[in-house]
Amino acid sequence: MLRDFFIGLSKNQLLNTAAKNYGLKMGAQNVVAGTTIEETIESIKELNKHGISATVDNLGEFVFKEEEATEAKEQIVKVIQAIHDHQVDAHISLKPTQVGLDIDFDFCVGNVREIVAKANEYGIFVNVDMEDSGHLGATLELVDILSADFDNIGTVIQAYLHDAQEQVEKYRNMRIRLVKGAYKEPAEIAYQDKKDIDANYVRIIEWHLLNGKFTSVATHDHNIINHVKRFVKEHNIPNDKFEFQMLYGFRRELQLQLAKEGYNFCTYVPFGKDWYGYFMRRLAERPQNLNLVFKQVFNKKTNTIIGVAAGAFLAGRLSKGKNKKNNR
Ligand SMILES: Cc1cc2nc3c(=O)[nH]c(=O)nc-3n(C[C@H](O)[C@H](O)[C@H](O)COP(=O)(O)OP(=O)(O)OC[C@H]3O[C@@H](n4cnc5c(N)ncnc54)[C@H](O)[C@@H]3O)c2cc1C
Question: Hey, which pathway is this one from (predicted)?
Answer without folding.
Answer: Amino-acid degradation; L-proline degradation into L-glutamate; L-glutamate from L-proline: step 1/2
